[in-house]
Every structure is written in C-alpha cells, then in structure tokens.
Amino acid sequence: MTSSEALLPSTRRALLHRVATAQSEGRTPSLVAAVQREGEIAWSGARSCVDGHEPDGDTQFRIGSITKTFTAVLVMRLRDEGLLDLDDPLDKHLPGTDVGYLTVFQLLGHSGGLAAETPAPWWERTPGSLRPELVDVLGEGPVIHPSGHGHHYSNPGYTLLGSLVERLRGEAWAEVLRREILEPLGMDRTTPEAHAPHAGGWAVHPWADVMLPEPAEDLGLMAPAGQLWSTTTDLLRFAAFLAQGDERVLRASSVAEMRTPAAPPEAGDWAGTYGLGLQAVRRGNRTLLGHSGSLPGFLATLLFSVEDDVAAVVLSNATSGPLTGVVAADLVQIVADAEPRIPEPWRPLPEVDEELLALTGPWYWGTQVHALKLLADGGLEFQPLRGAGRAARFRARPDGTWTGLNGYYAGETLRVVRADDGTVDHLDLGSFVFTREPYERSAAVPGGVDEGGWRGLAI
Q: For the whole model, what pTM was predicted?
C-alpha cells in the first residue's frame, strides 16, 4: 500500500459516521474534519445544518489555543538560534513583568504556577484594547501555585511568550509568525483575522434548538494564546511538521523536544501530559499529540500519532457541544486500527563496522543479562532479556562514547572500557559495569569477585 491509495470504503464510511454523529449529537451548526495519512490528506468530510452549505478544507474556523503551539515553535526557533536558553528567567529578555523569575521552559510547559486566566472581564469575549499592557493581562498576584512544581494551564503565560518573541525579533508577533512558520509551510489560509470563506461563531441553547451569534473579538496582547483562524488543510500541514520537523522552520530534534512531557500532570489526570506547547494524551496503547482550542463560537482539535503517521483535525462553530478532542482521537484510531501502517521493508546495513559488531550480543550487569543491538540508523539499543527493565537507545558521540536517548539512561554516557592490551574489558553505563560473563573475574568488577568462584550447595 502507498499513501496515495484511497482509504477502504468501510473506513471512509466509519469516518463519515463519526463526524455525522458528532455534528448531530453535539448540536453544532457545522463540523468539518480531515484525516492525513503518510503526509497526504486521505479523507475529509463535513456536516452542516444548512443543506448544500457544508464547510470544506478551505473554510476558516477560529482555532483558539492551537495558536499556542505556533507561539511555542517561534520560541524554540529563538532557542535554536542561540538568542535565549529555555532555562533563562523571563526577566533576562522581557524585564518589568513582576514574574520575571519564571523560566521560558516553565511558561512553555505551563509549570510556572501562573493563573489560568486574566483578571475580569472575560478576555475571550471582550476587546483586547481593555488589556493594553502586560500588567493588565497578569493582574495582581498572578502566580497562584509554586513555580516548577507541576502543570497548571495558563493563558497569560503564552501572552508573555508572545511578547518575548516580539521583544527579541523587534516586530509584531503576527508578522513573525507569518514569515517564520506560515509562509515556509504553505499555510496561506491561517491568519489572525477571518478571511472568507469562514464560519460564523454560534452559541446553541442547551435546552432548545435555537442559536445565538457569538462576537469575534481581536484579542490584542492575548493573541499568541488563541487568536488564529485556520482550516483543516492548513492544520494538517502543521501536523506533518510537528511529527517530522522541517529545516525551514524547526529541526526534527527540536520538534521532538516539544513533544516530550515537561511537567507531571495534574493530580488525577494520568491519561495526559503537556510538553512544550503540545498536549499528549493516551488512547489505549497509542500516544496522540497536538492541541485543542476553544473560543466563544468555536471548538477545534488537532491530533496526530507519530508511530501510525496519521493525523486528524476537527473544527466546529459552536461554543460548546461537540467533543472535538474525542472525535479527533476517534478519527485517528479508526484509520490506524482499520488500515495499520505498512512497515518499510527490512534491509541490511549498507556497511559493517566490525568493532561495533563485536560489541553486540549479551552483556551482564552482575547476573542480569542484557542484549546490545546495532540499529539501522547507526545507533545502539540496550535492553534486558528478561522482564521490563531499563531499556534504552543510544546515539554515538564524536569522542567514541554514546549518549542515552530515552528512559532511565536518557542523557547518560555509555563507554567501552578497554584493557591494557586493547581488548574490551567491560561497558560502563552511568558507572554500572557490564561484562561478557556474569561477574567475570578478569574484568574490572567493582568490589572484585570472590576468589572461590561459583559454587554449588556442597561448599
């Protein structure tokens, strides 16, 4: 199967049924969704209360807090250019906020302890001109939890990050966004203000089938937290970037860093975490990444699975009703389960590194047996052969050592230690000694090995 092949009729039927059910049961004027597989749009569908006027992939909806992910990408670009460090206090680059001790990392991952919202009036339904300065966004006593101790979602935190971008770039957040993300990715239907064709925002009465139009305010300083309008087509382009990176915008390793959990989840919410501008949720054995968003009159969700190479976007024009996050997760699951990704053919390595090949096979930490494998990308994989112990992958360093990439050994160093004659004595992994035989007597085992050697019951 190739990505250009159409989804099976049964899969398309299941996707349409899910979207139709969401629009009907969610009582929203319209709902549009699309699914991407292996970098290409594989399906799109919509439902509307007006016959013949369904939205499509070119129809703009407000996307609310999905905007935060764009702002986070801009901050990560500044980091990659060396203009800031994620551990920098805000005050180093944006002085005078009264929360300058919070770090860039804490703001990106919502672990700074800032309040969730601005002082009244409700910022999503009032003009941004009511909050002309950052002090108006933060108010008095904006830090309500210990900084760095956990996740607490904060809209004002992303206003601070947007202002940080403006300070370091010397121009408006929206202009930086257009030049550095939207244009390179071809997202010409993602804009701070609505451009036709676009949906209107509606509130649907909870106890009667009647509607009320919602205002669409310019959010001013709060724009980096939720201003954008976009389409399913544009957001699927963005999803592909967030899964793989794009050197024109942000390299793959930095995007992967954004996908990594930045703080423990809130108590009781063990099904989801937050990275740097990206939400992560668990659906069965699958990890879905992306972001949800809402503003009066609109609901939106973008979710993708890196492992399945499937992404889904769901947009709706109702203040409440359809659970777009649940629907988007369902759409990913429908495609990934019904038509699982076909793996690439196995191929041998293009060349053999004899020294690395000699290191593969079993190694013992005391009496626990591990196996070292040479991977197709030139890295190493080290994992226990019994039980679910400390498995990890490693990347080579120029000095001949290896750096752990995940799990317990993430960031730790793996070294090959040789005897005076050049032969391999043992592997040193974060001070742990791994030998070719259990407690190998000729190796440098900490504490030494009993001279009597192994023995049976009759001593």
A: 0.90
